[in-house]
Amino acid sequence: MRSRFLPSLPAAPERPPGIEAYYRMHAGIYDATRWSFLFGRDAILERAAAAQPAPARILEVGCGTGRNLVALARRFPRAQITGVDLSGEMLAIARRKTTPYGSRVTLLRRAYDAPVAAARGHQLVLCSYALSMFNPGFEAAIEAARRDLVPGGHLALVDFHATRQRWFARWMGVNHVRMDGHLRPLLRETLSPVTDRVCRAYGGVWEYLLYVGRKA
After folding, report:
1. Residue 148, C-beta contacts closer than 8 angstroms, at least 6 positions apart
2. Dihedral Cα 49, 52, 55, 61, nearest 10 deg
3. What is the CATH number of the domain that holds 148?
4. Cβ count within 10 A of residue 75
5. Is 212 within 8 Å of 48 (Cβ atoms)?
6. Which of 88, 160, 174, 184 is deepest in the core (most CB within 10 A)?
7. How many structural domains compose the chain?
């Protein structure tokens, strides 16, 4: 059976117009290049599994080419998994990767500015290097994740955090990434922290955040 790939929904009006073009250009090289700076992706999966050993329903926000979807499907063989992304090109790659997992994996092309399935809820929501690119929109995404979680569910996040290097901040801004530590305070306000750790990359050129929060 093939994973379901639902038709495109309109992007949120406030989404920066260049972001879809950016990922259209990068989709083909994404997996070959991101290993060198998207640190902590395996670590956040380990921490998510420690917090939620057997989630029935999992949502990944900004699932991209499906790297984490495959890891989640293998780690949680009984879970129903949904991946959300704005880029059709990235989702096309994710679809090929997740085909072996059949109907356990659903892919949605849409902006994450509202819950996917708040009525049913998820035990685990994963955000991996996504929310720092939601500018504007990260507040709405965090609130959507809170509403998508069942009580006692967990949001697991790994993302860029901050840098003291102005040149690097400017360069990341060209790549649609905000690096001023803006995510951490809102995450702390929204959920109860289980993991809240800032890690250094390349000797402190930048920092990335590992965060797991529990919904009361």
Report:
1. 59, 115, 116, 117, 118, 121, 122, 125
2. -70
3. 3.40.50.150
4. 16
5. yes
6. 160
7. 1
Q: Is the four-CA dihedral 127, 129, 130, 131 of positive or negative sign? A: positive
Pick 109 or 26 by higher pLDDT: 109
Radius of gyration of the chain (CA): 16
Alpha-carbon distance 90 to 120, whole Å? 27
Q: Which pair of tokens denotes residue 39?
A: 């640190």
How many other CB atoms are found less than 10 A from the CB of residue 135?
16
Overall average pLDDT of the 150-161 stretch: 98
In this structure, what token pair is assigned to residue 28?
Answer: 């083909």
* Full domain range(s) for residue 162: 4-214
CA atoms of 28 and 15, how far apart (whole Å)? 22
Q: What is the DSSP-derived secondary structure letter of residue 208?
A: E
The amino acid occupying position 16 is P
Gap between the Cα atoms of 1 and 99, Å rounded: 7
pLDDT of residue 37: 82
136 preceded by a cis bond (ω within 30 of 0): yes
Per-residue pLDDT reduced to its tens digit, 7-32: 333 333 344 446 666 655 555 566 66
